[in-house]
């Protein structure tokens, strides 16, 4: 059951990241066309494109955690595979706690921004929801990995 949840989440996240990438590219092309042919741009397009870059990168990071987490540590090369397998769950627990803490603070930051932004800029504040959403998804993926267990090198495709 947890692995099905993880697979469904990954599909939804990949679809959302792809949709944001396509929207970003289409909006950029429309903006270029509007500037070249009509000598004016699309109002708010550059701000929306900037936030779409954030959406694509943060959702891409979430998908990357599921697919093949980047590990930058020397210790994994110095210890045996048995120890690596023993340490994976505690490391995933630590990652869950770190991402959960970042999620909590991102929610607080986003909520504060939402309350203090003018009504004309609410849509910009709404786009900032990617920060708490991405940290929540990262935390969820790490928590699911604690439950599911480590992926051995043989199981990773």
From TrEMBL:
Q: What's a single GO CC term here?
A: plasma membrane
> Could you tell me which residue ranges the Tripartite ATP-independent periplasmic transporters DctQ component domain spans?
24-147
Q: Which Pfam families match?
A: DctQ (PF04290)
Instruction: Output one GO MF annotation.
Output: transmembrane transporter activity
Q: Name one GO biological process term.
A: C4-dicarboxylate transport
Q: Recite the UniProt keywords alphabetically.
A: Cell inner membrane, Cell membrane, Membrane, Transmembrane, Transmembrane helix, Transport
Query: Transmembrane segments in this chain: where?
Result: 12-30, 42-65, 91-111, 123-148
Intracellular or extracellular location(s): Cell inner membrane
Indicate the segments annotated as coiled coil, or none if absent: none
Q: How does it sit in the membrane?
A: Multi-pass membrane protein
Concerning InterPro entries, the annotation shows: DctQ, TRAP_DctQ
Family of this protein: Belongs to the TRAP transporter small permease family.
Kindly state the subunit structure of this protein: The complex comprises the extracytoplasmic solute receptor protein and the two transmembrane proteins.
**Protein purpose:** Part of the tripartite ATP-independent periplasmic (TRAP) transport system.
Q: What is this protein called?
A: TRAP transporter small permease protein
Q: Organism source for this protein? A: Sulfuricella denitrificans (strain DSM 22764 / NBRC 105220 / skB26)
């Amino acid at each position: 059951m947890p692995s099905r949840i993880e697979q469904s989440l990954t599909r939804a996240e990949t679809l959302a990241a792809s949709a944001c990438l396509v929207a970003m590219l289409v909006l950029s092309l429309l903006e270029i066309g509007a500037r070249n042919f009509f000598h004016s741009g699309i109002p708010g397009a550059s701000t929306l494109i900037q936030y779409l870059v954030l959406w694509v990168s943060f959702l891409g990071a979430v998908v990357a955690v599921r697919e093949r987490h980047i590990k930058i540590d020397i210790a994994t090369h110095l210890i045996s595979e048995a120890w690596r397998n023993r340490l994976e769950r505690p490391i995933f627990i630590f990652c869950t706690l770190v991402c959960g803490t970042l999620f909590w603070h991102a929610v607080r930051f986003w909520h504060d921004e939402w309350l203090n932004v003018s009504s004309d800029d609410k849509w910009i504040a709404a786009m900032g929801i990617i920060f708490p959403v991405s940290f929540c998804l990262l935390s969820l993926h790490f928590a699911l990995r604690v439950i599911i267990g480590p992926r051995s090198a043989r199981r990773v495709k």
